[in-house]
Structure formats: structure tokens, C-alpha cells
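Render this sequence as a predicted structure.
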Amino acid sequence: MRVFQEMAVFTGNAHRDLAEAVCRHLEMPLGDCEVFEFSNEEVFVRYLDNIRERDVFIIQPIVSPVNTRLMELLIMIDAAKRASAGRITAVVPYYAYGRSDKKDQPRVPVTARLVANFIEVAGADRVLTLDMHAGQIQGFFNIPLDELTAFPLIAEHFRQKNLPAPVVVAADVGRAKLAREIAGRIDADIAIVDKKREGNTDHAEALTMIGEVEGRDCLIIDDEILTGGTVASAVRLLRTRGARSVRVACVHPVMAGRAFEVLDTSEVDEIVYTDTLPLVHGSFKKVPASVLSVAPLIGDAMHRIHTGGSVGALFR
């Protein structure tokens, strides 16, 4: 296996704070790169550092404005390839279009696969990401992909709180396995919310609850929060079932639409999320918010990729 001697880290305009935090953890400078739009909205990229034969990492979550940030990532990859980079790793902490991971209706696209094709064709040699919305997205890539998980960070956060009667609540049936894993880490029971989504809208309604939550400290866990509708509905259901406290946690705080309006209420005791993407649509004013940094996790994974080490060993 070829081990590259020099490492270079760059970022677009999606989340510079995270890229700088990763570089501080790695004790190295963030590379110098111009990424901007012309007046006609076309994206321009120019590397100001020499990257010939270097091991290049491009940190760029695909966040709002999603299509602009995606184009920045693709053009940065292409520019690095044409500048003779030795290897290009696309570090995508948040992989957008992850919800479009299957053809579940007639005449609809599988956009998550399309984005994977874009990244490959642009010239990336490998991808590093965190907690994709669906596991099968890994199989959409024909290049190496490492998927990290921030759920152990969330579990440790709640473990340190020493809640007297914790219950991990899966936001839907599909998250039951995740809830069970986190519950095992903090010695908690689990409960599952059965929800119904209306067509292609962002609206979802919690219908019923599987599990006992009366007098318990409930932890609603999900990979991402988009509009907050699903979580807000689950919070109301838990409160009607007699929950003593309700805390909400996610890895990716997309928080679009009315998310802050529906979640920033007294019914939520705490909201926990990581810094895989910035809060671009607002902030929490009433609910205590805890932000967990994934910069050390990403930095350690990048170092292992650069040196030929095992990324999986980070979780053992």
C-alpha cells in the first residue's frame, strides 16, 4: 500500500469552523484555497498551495444552499485532480440527498446514487463521511468509503448525566436497532415511536408508542433532524404518556423550515447535536443545547487514512 508523505487539508464555504477544528486537532495548518461565485453564480476554485503528489483531504459537508455546496465540492475535487494531487479524499461529514436512497415510488430518482456518481467522476479516490441516512448508500460507491459514527459521542454524553430512569426512544421503527445499541451503552430501556408520513411532504405524525415511558427520562435519538416535525410529534406523545423528561439528540442538525419554532419549547429539556454542519437557519433560545464536536473523530480518521492505519479500530 502506498503511504503518502505529505498531507494537505482544504475546505470550501460550507463549514470552515469544522475544518479549522480538524486541523487544530491534527496540529497542521488549513490549506489556502479560493472558492467563490462569479456574478453569474458559477463557482470558481483555485488552490493557492502546491498540492502535486500530496495526500489531499477536502472537508465539505453538503449543507444549505445544498446544490451550491455540492458544486463547490465537485469542482474542488476536479481542481485537485488537475493539479496532480497524489490522492484525493472527499470528507463529507453530512451527505445530502441521503433520503433519496431507493425507488419507493413510480418514476422517481435515486439521487443518493447520482451524487455518489458525481463525486467519483469528479475524481475523488475515496470518501470519508459520518452516519449516512441509510446504510445501503455505501454500496453506491465504487471507490473506498469510510463511514464514521458519532452516536458513541452522544451515548457518552448521556451516560455522564447519570439519569435515574433512562429510556432511549427510536424516532421511528427503522431506528429501533440504533436505539437498542445506544441503550446498551448507557444501561437503558428502549421505546419505539410508530409514525406516519404524508406522501412526499416533510410532515410526519407520531401515531403510537411501543414501550413504557411513564415517569422515565426519555432520549429521542435520530441521525438527522430536518423540519423537526417528527421529533416534535414524538415529544408530545411522550409527554401525554407521562414522561418525566424528554431530551432530543441527533448527529446532523439540518434544522430547516420551522425546526426551531417547533422544537424550541419548554416540552424539550435538552437538545444535543454534533457540529457536522452549521446551524444556518437559526439557533435555540429556550432549550438548553449541547454541541458535541466531531473534529477529533474526523481528524483521527484522516490521520489513519493518510498513514495506512485502520479506521475501524477507532470504534473498538
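Summary. Helices lie at 16-26, 66-82, 111-122, 151-159, 176-186, 229-240, 259-263, 295-307. The longest helix spans residues 66-82.
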